[in-house]
Every structure is written in structure tokens, then in C-alpha cells.
Design a protein that fits this description.
The protein is of the alpha/beta class. 32% of the residues lie in helices and 25% in strands. It is built from twelve helices and 21 strands. The chain binds 5'-O-[hydroxy(phenylacetyl)phosphoryl]adenosine.
């Protein structure tokens, strides 16, 4: 189902024209209403009048997370505070969070793009949707909530945590779709398996998963364990929250709502555009936001774009699954390692549960690289030789993918901590030791 056929299926020329018009408007807004943006543009020697088409966007300076921190909490607003009806904040683990303000119109655009997502997943007014993203400053809960109400579905506003009650509500209310992080979905699947309630008693058919990177292997694992079809939803606090992008039924990439959020892919080192289809850092310009529009915001997410028309009929550009963030990448003994690579290998190997934890440290001037991983019940034995074999198997597989031999520590099933929101899978002790 397509929620807004005009917006989602318009020709590329028509969309570029729309993007150009919207870009000019948003530039006027930031230039005349937001001092830091005006200064930045003046320093770069570019005035709103110098921008005529969307392709001129490359003349504009980037905005970074650091800018948002420097102007904490709301120094980058382009609307008076009296127009701001809500704030959200990112879940930054260090220092101050990033705070974003939304006007009433921003919230209605958020609902519109959210409705596009849910319709693409085949949901409508007869469906019960459980929102298990956290409610509060995090955009997940309230963002998904607004989308469900917009399509006229029935929202079960669970927020995160209290897994037993989550399962009770899901079961008793005939929930059809579940919104949460992929890691929490996996935890819920495990708890449902252990509850003994037959899966046939649940109506669950659709998973709406995002807020953290997840691999195709993880998708298959969750789909199989919950008996559902799992869809990607993408978003970030600074730009809007969940609804910036979504998968259609064909699942050949995540469609970006580029009539509202204009994407570019740059080489993170040089800031230049990469060749079409090449991987790099995703950058967004909000074309319609009023509260806190951002121009060429560097997300740090790594992906590539595909502009071919999708067979679903949508012409919205498709983004490949996020493979990680520039700041997620571990450099261990000079080798680049992404946690998503480890996830793929572990999920492809039948003997292991999809739960692992990476610890990196530096001992005697050499990086250490350890992976704790849960062994499946049926493979977990007292037989030391059997366990050593498993260790070697995994160390070898990981080495062949990332080019580096980790130390594998096998642990019992269900012994690693489960997450209710975004999973934390890496501890880089070098950061603290330096
Ligand atoms: O995670 C917004 C969100 C909530 C998206 C619920 C989807 C569902 P932040 O906390 O600001 O906002 O984190 C944004 O999370 O830059 C990505 O690195 C990552 N991320 C979000 N969605 C996906 C996804 C929310 N579908 C950051 N796949 C982003 C991979 C994702 N990574």
C-alpha cells in the first residue's frame, strides 16, 4: 500500500524541482533566523540567492554533531521558542545530549512520513501495533506512536522494558506489528519461546525494526524465530526520528523520504561526493523543517544509494542497510573492523546464539581483540576438546572475514546481558586507557 502516491512515486525531474524549491526556502529560513547558520554561510561566501537548484547544495558548508553540541541546547533553532511544541534528545553516551526542537508543522510532517512507512509494511486501520521503543526524549516511542495514529491503527504504547507484560499484551490484544530495536525483538523471541505459549496463539506478522544497525542474517534469525516479516525503519533524532526511511514489501533497500530529507553520500575524509552507488557517509538536509532545519548534516552512518526506480512503484531513492557508523569502526592492529561483520559471521554459524560482546584493549603496546559469544544449548558441553574446536572454528571464520584473529571466549546460553533498547556490543578499553 502506498500512503502518498504523489510524493512517493513522482518522477525524478519533478522531485528535483520540488527539492530545489524547498532548499531555497529552507536556506532563507536558516539564513535570516539562525545566527550560527548565517555566520557559517557568510564565512563560506555563499548567500541563499546563490543556490538555484538542488545540485548547488555542494556549495554549502556541512553541519556536524559538534555544531549541535556547541550550540547546546537549542542554539540552532530557526523558529522562535513560542513555535516549538516539542523537544527530543539523542541518547549520546558521553557529554551533553543533542537536543532538537519541533514545531507543530514538523510534527505533522513526521506523522506523514511515518504513515508512509507503516502503509509500506502493509498496515492499516484494522491493525494493532505495539510500540516497544522507549517513550520520552528518545524519538522512537512517540515517533512510531504518531505514525500508528495517523494511519488509524490501534496503538499499544508499551515503551521499552517489562518483557513479560510486553508478551502478555502482544498475545491478548492480537498485536499484528511490533516496533522495537532488532536486539530487543530477539530478546522477546527468546522469552516467548521460553514462556511455552505456542506461537500460533500470537497474531504477530510484522516487525518494524531500527534505531541500530542490523544485518540480513539478523533479519532472517528474527523472522524465523518470531514467524514474521521484518522491515527496516530508519531515522535519527537530528533529522526527524523514525520515518526518515523505510523498506517496501520488496526489501531491496530502504526508501528515503527525500522530498523532506535530501540525502548525499560523501567520502568522510575529503567531504567530496563519492561516485554514484559507492559507499560513504550519509549526509542529510532537511528541506521542510521549521524548528531546527539542518543543512548538510553529517550523520556518520555508512551506506550507499540506489536511484533506480523500485518495482514497488516508488521512485524514492533506496539506501543500503547501514553497515555501521564512522565512529563505530574499530581499528584493531591497524585493521578496520565493524561490529556488523562479526554479527554476520556469528549468525551464519549454527553453533552460536546471536549474542556476543566485543572487548578491545591494549596490552604491552599491542591491541587485544576478544569476542565473548553464547554457545547454543545443544552445543554447550563439558567436553574441552569440543569447546576448543568451536573456538577455533569461529576464530578462523572471523579471521577470514575481517583479516584478524580474535580471542574467542565461549559462554553459556543466556549469560550475556540482553538489551531493551539499543544494544551495546563493544567495549573499547583503549579509549579509557589513553
Ligand atoms: O534511533 C531514531 C529511530 C528510532 C530510528 C526508532 C528507527 C527506529 P537516534 O537515537 O538519534 O535516533 O540514533 C540515530 O541510529 O544515525 C543510525 O546510526 C542508527 N539507526 C537508526 N535507524 C537505523 C536503522 C533513532 N534502521 C542513529 N538501521 C542513526 C541502522 C539505524 N542504523
Amino acid at each position: 500500500m502506498i500512503w502518498n502516491e504523489k510524493a512517493e512515486c513522482m518522477s525524478r525531474d519533478e522531485r528535483m524541482w520540488l527539492q530545489s524549491e524547498r532548499l531555497k526556502k529552507v536556506l532563507e529560513r536558516v539564513y535570516f533566523n539562525c545566527e550560527p547558520y548565517r555566520k557559517r554561510m557568510q564565512e563560506a561566501g555563499v548567500m541563499p540567492g546563490d543556490i538555484n537548484t538542488i545540485e548547488d547544495i555542494v556549495k554549502l558548508p556541512f553541519t556536524s554533531k559538534k555544531d549541535l553540541r556547541d550550540y547546546y541546547p537549542l542554539g540552532l533553532l530557526s523558529s522562535p521558542m513560542s513555535e516549538i511544541v516539542r523537544v527530543h534528545a539523542s541518547s549520546g553516551t558521553t557529554g551533553k545530549p543533542i537536543v532538537v526542537g519541533y514545531t507543530r508543522n514538523d510534527l505533522s510532517i513526521w506523522k506523514e512520513v511515518g504513515a508512509r512507512c507503516l502503509s509500506a509494511y502493509g498496515l492499516g486501520k484494522n491493525d494493532v501495533v505495539q510500540v516497544s521503543y522507549g517513550y520520552g526524549l528518545f524519538t522512537g516511542g512517540l515517533g512510531a506512536h504518531g505514525a500508528v495514529e495517523t494511519i488509524g491503527g490501534t496503538v499499544v504504547p508499551m515503551s521499552s522494558g517489562n518483557t513479560e507484560k510486553q508478551i502478555l499484551m502482544m498475545h491478548d490484544l492480537g498485536v499484528k506489528a511490533l516496533c522495537c530495536t532488532p536486539s530487543y525483538a530477539l530478546h522477546l523471541a527468546e522469552c516467548i519461546e521460553r514462556s511455552g505459549i505456542p506461537r500460533s496463539e500470537f497474531q504477530l506478522k510484522v516487525g518494524i525494526f531500527g534505531a541500530e544497525p542490523w544485518t540480513e542474517e539478523m533479519r532472517r534469525e528474527i523472522e524465523q524465530r518470531l514467524g514474521i516479516k521484518a522491515f527496516d525503519i530508519y531515522g535519527l533524532t537530528e533529522i526527524m526520528g523514525p520515518g526518515v526511511g523505510y523498506e517496501c514489501n520488496l526489501q531491496h533497500g530502504t526508501h528515503l523520504n527525500e522530498d523532506h530529507f535530501y540525502p548525499e553520500i560523501i567520502n568522510p575524509e575529503t567531504g567530496e561526493h563519492v561516485k554514484p552507488g559507492e559507499k560513504g557517509e550519509l549526509v542529510f538536509t532537511t528541506l521542510t523543517k521549521e524548528g531546527m532545519p539542518l543543512i548538510r548534516f553529517r550523520t556518520r552512518d555508512l551506506t550507499y544509494l540506489n536511484y533506480d526506480k523500485c518495482e514497488c512503484g516508488r521512485t524514492l531513492v533506496r539506501m543500503a542497510k547501514i553497515m555501521g557508523r564512522t565512529d563505530d569502526m574499530l581499528i584493531i592492529r591497524g585493521v578496520n573492523v565493524f561490529p556488523s561483520q562479526i554479527e554476520s559471521v556469528i549468525l551464519e554459524t549454527a553453533e552460536f546464539e546471536p549474542h556476543f560482546f566485543i572487548t578491545v584493549d591494549r596490552v604491552n603496546n599491542t591491541d587485544t581483540f576478544e569476542i565473548k559469544v553464547e554457545v547454543k544449548e545443544q552445543y554447550y558441553t563439558d567436553d574441552i576438546n569440543g569447546m576448543i574446536k568451536l573456538q577455533k572454528l569461529l576464530a578462523h571464520k572471523i579471521q577470514s572475514v575481517v583479516g584478524l584473529q580474535p580471542t574467542i571466549r565461549l559462554v553459556e546460553p543466556r549469560s550475556l546481558q540482553r538489551s531493551e533498547g539499543k544494544e551495546k556490543r563493544v567495549l573499547d578499553k583503549r579509549v579509557f586507557n589513553n
